[in-house]
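Per your request, structure below.
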């Protein structure tokens, strides 16, 4: 057998090998495809982690960093907070994370800041409000009741007042409420909303400097 023939046969066999399917291609019935490695999954970020990132960015006055972990409206709300920063983290219940005051008295049952977290961002912020007129505090709570938003109500009202008011759901097709203004009473102001057959009295306490808050709700019948 000549060397020339061996060389030609080797070349022919190499060319044929290029035409055969590789073992990983799985084109034949007896072939088995090699499974690809599963894609790495990103672990979900805990709501507390997201909330603390926003809180820390706020403490630094870093709006750009805050915008990375919160919606524009949430950033604007947080950066408008008029009180000193809350000094306690009250934890998260589901996607609701709270930062509370332990050394400062602020209006409302919220007692600080509530962040609503969705995925990797804070989508909404509720916070204790500084309102300088009794009628404004009453109207703010009334509006929260109309919207069915307890968290908004707690920004300006005690937990007891919110619980009392939200015991009944606001019915837009029901009786019409008419604001009658606020009058002075022994411990603050009484802001009346009249309706056919009676009135709702929103009792407000506080001052212009410390801010007004709704303390309780009562009703009178004609």
């Amino acid at each position: 057998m000549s060397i020339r023939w061996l060389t030609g046969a080797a070349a022919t066999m190499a060319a044929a090998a290029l035409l055969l399917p590789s073992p990983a291609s799985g084109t034949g019935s007896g072939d088995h495809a090699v499974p690809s490695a599963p894609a790495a999954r990103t672990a979900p970020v805990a709501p507390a982690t997201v909330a603390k990132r926003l809180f820390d960015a706020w403490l630094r006055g870093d709006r750009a960093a805050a915008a990375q972990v919160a919606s524009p409206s949430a950033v604007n709300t947080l950066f408008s907070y008029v009180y000193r920063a809350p000094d306690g983290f009250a934890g998260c219940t589901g996607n609701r994370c709270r930062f509370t005051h332990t050394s400062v008295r602020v209006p409302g049952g919220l007692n600080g800041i509530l962040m609503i977290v969705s995925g990797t961002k804070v989508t909404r912020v509720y916070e204790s409000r500084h309102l300088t007129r009794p009628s404004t505090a009453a109207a703010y709570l009334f509006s929260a009741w109309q919207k069915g938003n307890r968290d908004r109500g707690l920004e300006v009202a005690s937990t007891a007042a919110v619980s009392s008011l939200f015991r009944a759901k606001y019915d837009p097709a029901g009786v019409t409420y008419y604001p009658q203004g606020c009058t002075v009473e022994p411990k603050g102001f009484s802001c009346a909303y009249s309706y056919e057959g009676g009135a709702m009295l929103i009792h407000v306490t506080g001052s212009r400097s410390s801010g007004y808050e709704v303390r309780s709700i009562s009703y009178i019948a004609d």
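Residues 3-19 form the longest helix (17 residues).

Regards,
D.
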